Structures are given as structure tokens and as C-alpha cells.
Amino acid sequence: RNMYLEKAAEHLIEAKNGIKTEMNTAVTHLAKYSKWPILHRKSTINTLTSHIADDLQFSTKICGITMQVYEYLGQPQNAKIEMEQYQAFMIDFLSNEIGDSGYTAIELLHDNYRYNKENVDCWYNFSIELKPKLSDIKQLESQENYIVTLEDPEDERE
């Protein structure tokens, strides 16, 4: 079982790296296209914002699953590294300006996202709520934490 989990961790890391690369490319294109929106189709900008939103969800899920795999394998140091990398990635996403646009990735997403009545300013609110949470993670590291998982007792395969 551990061999399969090790392989799973490797594939999850590959997926994470691919998603980050794709997301960085999409954000760079969004910065370029939103600088002169009249020269680009709105559908192209909408597609980019949709891809960025999807990639954010996937990267979060992959980080969580990878951490669980490492915890199960008895490698909490690797789980911690995954969390630190995710935290750094999100801080960059919220804080670093993209090229010479003068905007961060979250600001570009906020300015170009197709909103409706239910999700008005969701990206702005997301950034406001997430920034303090990312700093709270550092405080959690100094405390004792427990991870609870459930296993099927019928599944005793090795």
C-alpha cells in the first residue's frame, strides 16, 4: 500500500506543478489582455478567469490530498512542506504584481470576473478573508494539531 501512496504523492506533485504553471500563464495572459480589453474578445478574458478560478480550486484540493497522503505515510515533514509551498503560492497570488500591470493576480481576477447577483465581489472578499488566514497558519504550526481520517476496516489490502 505504501508503494502506491508514494506513487500517488509523486503524481499529485506533478499535477500541482502543472496547475501552477498553467495558472501563472493564464494570469500573465489576463494581465496582457485586460490592459487593452478593447483589442481582445470578452470571451477570451472570461475563459482565462474561469481557468484561473478552476486552477485555484484544484491546487487547494491537491494540496490537501497530498498532505493526507504524506501524513498516512508517516511523513509529517513532507506534509508541512506542502502546506508551506501552498501558503507561499497563495501569498504570491494575493500580493505580487503581475509584470508591469500594477495589479496582483487576485486584483486582475476581481476586475475581469463575470459577476452575477449571488457572487458580486467574491474575489475581493476572498482576498480580504484569506490574507489573515494565511498568517494564522504560522500560528497553528506552533500548536499541537490532530488529523482525523477514516478507513474502511473491511479494506485490509496491502
Walkthrough of the structure:
Helices cover 72% and strands 0% of the residues. Helix 1 (2-35) packs across helix 4. The chain has one domain. With 158 residues, it is an all-alpha fold.
Secondary structure topology:
Layout: H1 2-35, H2 42-72, H3 76-95, H4 105-112, H5 122-141
Helix content: over 70%
> Between the first and last Cα atoms, what is the distance in angstroms?
5 Å
Q: Compute the average pLDDT.
A: 86
**Low-confidence runs (pLDDT<50, min 5 residues)?**
none
Q: How many domains make up the 3D coordinates?
A: 1
| N-to-C series of helices and strands | HHHHH
Secondary structure tally: strands:
0
Strand portion, in percent? under 5%
Give the radius of gyration.
Answer: 18 Å
- What structural class is derived from the secondary structure elements? mainly alpha
- Oligomeric state of the chains? single chain
